[in-house]
Amino acid sequence: MFDAALGSAGLVLAFVFGLLGTLGSLIGAYQRNERLMSGARTLLLIGFFGTIVSTFAMEQALVSHDFSLAYVVANNSKETPLLFSITGMWSALQGSLLLWAIVQGLYIALLAFAMRHEADRRTGSVALGILGVVFTYFSGLLLFAASPFLTTVGTIPADGRGPNPLLQDYPLVAIHPPMLYMGFVGMSVPFALLSAALITGRLNNDWITRVRNWSLITWVFLTIGIVLGAWWSYQVLGWGGYWAWDPVENSALLPWLCGIAFIHSVLIDRRRKRMGIASFSLVSAAFALTILGTYFTRSGVLQSVHAFSDSSLGTVLILFFVAVVIFEIGLSIFAADRLMGQARFPLLSRPGSLLINNAIFGLLTLVILAGTVYPLFAHYFNHQTVDVGAPFFDAFVIPLFLVLLAIMAIGPWLNWRRTPPELIGQRLLLPGAAAVLVVAISAFAGVTALATLGAYALATFVIVSSVIVIYGNLARSSGRRASALVSRSSAGMLTHIGVAIIAIGMASATTFGHQGSVKMVPGQTVHVYGQTLKYEGVETVVTPAKTSFEANVVVNGGNTYHPAITQFGTYATAVGTPSVNVGLTRDVYLTIDAAPTTDKGPITLGIVVQPLIFWLWAGAGVMVLGGLLSVVGIREQNRRRRGNLPASDTPVEVTV
Amino acid sequence: MITHVTKPRRILFAWLALVLIAMASVGYAIVNTPSTSTAARIVTLEKEVRCPSCGNLAVYNSKTASSYSIADYIQHQVRAGASNQEIIDSLVASYGDTILMAPPANGVGLLLWLLPVVVGLVLAWEVYRSLSSRTGSQRRRTSALGSAVAIPTTAIDQPSTMRAPRGVDIGPAPSPGGLATERATSLGGVAAMLSPSAADESNREDDVGQPGSDHGSPSMGETTASRVRRGTGSGADGTPIVRRGRLFSRRLAQIGAALILVGVGALGTLLFTRSNATTAPSLAQQLASGEALAGLGAVKQARSEFQHILATYPSDPTALAYVGWIDFNLAKTKSAKADSIAVLAHAAQLGAYDASAQLYYGLALYYGEDKPIAAVEHLNRFLATHPSKPLVAQAYRLAKPAYLAAHRKIPTTF
Amino acid sequence: MSSVTEAVRRRPMLTVVGVLIVGAIIYFAIIAAQTKPAVDQVAPSPLLYRPAPALSGPSLYSHSTISLRQFRGHFVLVNYFASWCSSCATEEAQIAALARSAAVTVLGVDYDDSPGPARRFLSLYHAHFPVLQDSNGANSLRWGVSAPPESFLIAPNGIVLAKIVGPTTVRIVDALVTLAQQKGY
Fold this sequence. Notes:
Radius of gyration of chain B: 37 Å
Mean pLDDT of chain A: 88
InterPro entries (chain C): AhpC/TSA, Thioredoxin-like_sf, Thioredoxin_domain, Thioredoxin_ResA/DsbE_sf
Oligomer: heterotrimer
Mean pLDDT of chain B: 67
CATH architecture of the largest domain in chain B: Alpha Horseshoe
Strand content of chain B: under 5%
Number of helices of chain A: 20
Distance between the termini of chain A: 70 Å
CATH topology of the largest domain in chain B: Serine Threonine Protein Phosphatase 5, Tetratricopeptide repeat
Order of helices and strands of chain B: HHHHHHEHHHHHHHHHHH
Protein name (chain C): Redoxin domain-containing protein
Number of strands of chain B: 1
Strand content of chain A: 5-15%
Subcellular location (chain C): Cell envelope
Number of strands of chain A: 11
Number of domains of chain B: 3
Distance between the termini of chain B: 93 Å
Low-confidence stretches of chain B: 134-245, 271-280
CATH superfamily of the largest domain in chain B: Tetratricopeptide repeat domain
Helix content of chain A: 55-70%
Largest sheet of chain B: none
Helix content of chain B: 55-70%
Largest sheet of chain A: 6 strands, antiparallel
CATH class of the largest domain in chain B: Mainly Alpha
Domain Thioredoxin (chain C): 46-182
Structural class of chain B: mainly alpha
Largest interface: A-B, 104 and 101 residues
Radius of gyration of chain A: 26 Å
Keywords (chain C): Cytochrome c-type biogenesis, Disulfide bond, Membrane, Redox-active center, Signal-anchor, Transmembrane, Transmembrane helix
């Protein structure tokens, strides 16, 4: 009971002070009232404190198994281990909204801190006000529509149901959702900053840089979140894949794509020292798509393995989405004087390549958005329950992705002004030769799928070309290696290398992957898809939280792997738990497809062998590393600006 | 920075060689592509069909009872010689479009497939317009509008009331380096979500560029936008309002026309494809249901079911035969009877190996035209098609008099 | 509000496009708001209003073969279930009650199951109705069954009238039968 009271009090605090702080920030900025603005900032921080109190109450209730809370009964049991008790907060609808609110509060606090020395309080105040609107909206949602602090009706049960089986099997559940929320919710910050500057008219180059830096930070979080999500699906869901074009997955991907396009689009703006309308549209779209994504995942209108479905929230969320879009479009109309229209560029120039790049990202976003919302329309017009899956997305995404790889390889070699073709020809000769070499070798080694050949060639193209750029950057700044490495161009090139490595991994895993199942008796050894499997028998492992039925399988004479079927607490249905032999050249993915009826009976093992799938995770790691280096580069950049050092991150001038 | 450029011709030759090698490799790959094996066909089908009980996964990727039975069915059908389309159709007939991993390209689904293509084309056009260097028509339009654009690069913070007086239109100057001249024309684009360029309308009337501090300081060693603008000069808008108004209405008309076209197209697609959009049953399924209806004695419904089939497959012998036979039995006048026999003759001609066509034409010849010998010929052909037992049993009763009248021995297969 | 008209007049293109986008989004929102989350419901199926597909298999209790055709002339509720399925346990008492009532004849189809557990499961709920086994899933496939429990209401003339996905109740089935009788089936 204490937890419920404390948590609800925190929510009231968050909502009331969030609302007051938002109004104060906006009115203060309008009246240019310094005292009101700084007072409002304090109010918003108190609102943030409210969400901290609520979160504390929620965690306290989960960890102490306080079954007087309905949410705890549904998502926790006495046997749930500590880690999964803590993660219980984001295992269901209401708790995950609380996570949203606290992350939004955290971003308000961070932004207030980052702008504490700002001479002009007004723009910052408007930005905080915009973030405050989102914060107040979500705390209101928590307070009035989806409170996680409802108490159990009647007698307090002795034990709860425990978290969803899929959410208590793998420790990644502790990291993936918070990372994803940091990225997802963080998309509101660049949007708020940009909108605020459009309203007050303070859209100078420093501000553009600030918007870009925040977008970069949230983009890195979102990348980490998405990659961890894919990795988690791979480890837990048991079909050997990592991405199913599920509505929830798509919801995270959409703002991520807009984020990439924005980061590239803003490169042009910083050069021209004015914010382009394209960039504003992209950052607005990214933010609006996070709200739309929340609608998809929280309303239950789309069927998904990851969704929390609750009908009552749908309408409220879709209305907020409409309000956000109207605000964005209205702002772009009324503040268009402060934005720069689409400029004309020569094709063979850096801005030209960036423009094509962004158009393709826009198209990708649209394809994925169309595929994601299509079931709604099909249901409305045809009264059919239809889902859109891989064949539709692959048909568009794969060719577009290949074109993006090509641009990625060529773009960094172009000058900002028109670049003569012969110069490009000369600069690209080495990467081009490497790509052709790879195509020739793969073709004669027996690769026949053209998309795969294309992916190999273009990925090689990107890797060689990016490595040369980084090498050039390092060579030119002999004295300041570290700063050259974190410079924008090097970090960006590293991200590109990561993408290329991912492309190689994906192409290989899909083209040369095998899957099937084998029936084995204990002690039997089989050779399948080039792997040697020895089945040694089964054992039953019982812990308080779960009962696992584990098979012991020796892969290629090395370690023993334990694919299992696990039954958690009171959940009737057992879930399969795969076991993966991860290798640099191939993964062997094992599941139990049919359990033996007796100890000596035959077992059916599912086996998926995918070459180079490890490269996917390695590439994602490189991509995140590149993003992190650019974030580090922000500090370097700020230090340099303060110290008036000459800028070293001029766009690459490549020496071949 | 490259100071020395290798001879262009050598680079060209090097690239030519590379392209040749690449083409040879790709050609080699194409030549060596294995022809689709049965196993590959099964995998393809399993990837196109959804596991009915596991969300967004294909049968290929899932391990539930329902996906196993579909996988078995697919394998069985492929081995039995069914085409991919037949297998897909039969699954759609029992599960609906839900069973497909991607919606078929008809009805609302067609819009889904077309949308990316259309938007892609619009975007490509917009990007092309943004990228192409200034053309003659471009120049004409620009000077007509008189909107050599100059944007203040640092004076953004100034309130718009501090707008400087309008300058003189000096027309477009050739831009040094050719970079980033503001576009004078606007996009005609539906794709404005991504690059709505309407802000240049505003620019046209916008503040006159005041040389800002950035103009003074030499920036990063390359020609930047600000320098181009300086080169272009601080020209501003001298266009009479009237022209802009006309331009606006013309543009509005263009957008309107485009929208109407898109709307009509979408509506047309919906109307024309919707009839078979909602879970179109396969021909076999339709025939089976028609036969079932006929067997139930629901003659009228059966006839309309077969008419429905004929609307899509006008020369399907089975459907023709059933329609003819039902008409033959219902016919009250002589001419109606003759008409129905003509239909049956057509059916028998089209379906030399179709059981129903041969059977019903044969029966009609005996009962309608009293030609037992010709009737028996067709009835024998009917037996040669290895018809199903129930149909044979049903036919026996009616066919027996024909054989007797023709003085032929009744085949043992009856 | 002259600043509004001024802003709109100066950016006609952006205004038009903006209004279009907002219109599209509002249209989407209206559709979205009318879409209710998929709950257990009388579901669409291509089988509706068509003669029921073939359904036959070995009986769960004897060596004889049971076929849907034997029940021609009655309203039949074809109920796909499995002993391992938890929502089947939710509905089984209702199905057993339906089998005792006169409104419909219940024909159970045991989906991906073995006879022993299935018999135990049914006796647990005192369910007494003919049940056929569908060991290879061929019947389920013809009927477009995704996952148990799913039920189909068949008219006396053999036409499929309704498909019910998820646990059903006596009330739902009774209502469907009444409706069908009013329509003259």
